[in-house]
Amino acid sequence: MTVSVAKRTEGQPARLRSRLLAPPSGGDHGFRTVVIGIVGLWILLYALNPRFLTVGNLSNLLLQIAAVTVLSMGAVIVLLLGEIDLSMGSVSGLCAAVMAVVNTKMGVPAPLAVVAAILCGVVIGLLHGVVVTRFAVPSFVVTLGGLLTWQGVQLAVLGEQGNLNITDDFIAGLTATYVPDWLGWTVTLLATAYLLSSAMTQRRNRSGPSGQSAPWYKPLLARTPVAALVLIGGALLISHRGIPLVVLIVLAVATLMNYVLTTRKVGRHLYAIGSNAEAARRTGVRVDRIKVAAFACTAGLAALGGVLAASRLFAVNQSSGQGSLLLLAIAGAVIGGVSLFGGVGTVWQALLGSLLIGSIANGMDLLSMPSSYKFAVTGAVLVLAVIIDATARRRAAR
Prior knowledge:
Blueprint: H1 2-20, H2 29-48, H3 55-80, H4 88-105, H5 110-134, H6 139-158, E1 163-165, H7 169-176, H8 181-205, H9 217-240, H10 245-263, H11 265-275, H12 277-282, H13 287-313, E2 315-317, H14 325-336, H15 347-366, H16 371-397
Antiparallel strand pairs: 1-2
Helix pairs in contact: 2-15, 3-10, 3-13, 3-14, 3-15, 4-5, 4-6, 4-13, 5-6, 5-13, 7-13, 8-9, 10-11, 11-13, 14-15, 14-16, 15-16
């Protein structure tokens, strides 16, 4: 009896470590919900105004949501830890101001100015992470203080004029450039092939205990509608003016983040900490180091979002990064299915959530509805998404 108990006790840490470090499941409940929501919303908006589903408007929609989507993907990283970053909007505005000052007033080449802006965001995120981990201050308080602090620094960087126009072709071209048709077709076909091939890979990875996989056509049928939408959407954009460069930038960032979160050890550690930080610490995960790195990555993506927003507006001013930008970024991740309680969510869900929010705003603008309606509907959708997440967690616990 003693031997069996000892063996069972020795095996528990190993089993716990394997569960904590296992790649997250791709079949999260929020993914299907937000896809159904987008389809239903688009059908409704098309019925109210057929202009919504025109290629020109959809291309404009993608340009509108690019900056918010990048911030929303950055929010995913800290939300997976069960933390939050309320300073993303202020950080994006400050870093955009740094880019504009370095480029226009100091004469630094635009690519280096963009790199300087992103590095500025990373340094700010490192500072937030160190304060949170070293002094055990809640991230809500630290980043709320950062929201006010970096907004003040932004005003100081811009100076008395308070506005800087961006005339550099490189920075403006980030959101004003459309890639050549051959590159657009290449990306579209590769994305479609990846969606279909990943379905077969997922089938092999989900084989049962006896080694038998599910029928080959089931995962393929599940991915076919999405692959068809990608193929049709890419073809329509190419026939219109081409695929915007900023869309490829956003997709490249999302692909890289998804690769790190789902296949690399640091990504698995993020999910482990968000699920149970103390258990992760006992299995050898360096929780504090991961948290600092997470805040740095979130702030770096906020800086990139600020650069894209400045590129689209051709200017940086005192209101850059302010207003509803922060709320929309967090709402995009939560509406997409990323849990506020940590440990659940993917980058693609944040992307879809941002698309849903952007569709609401774009559609209501076409219908000439007041901003009050836009905010009310977005808030209602956000609350509904949190209710769905909380309900799913209670069911899983039972």
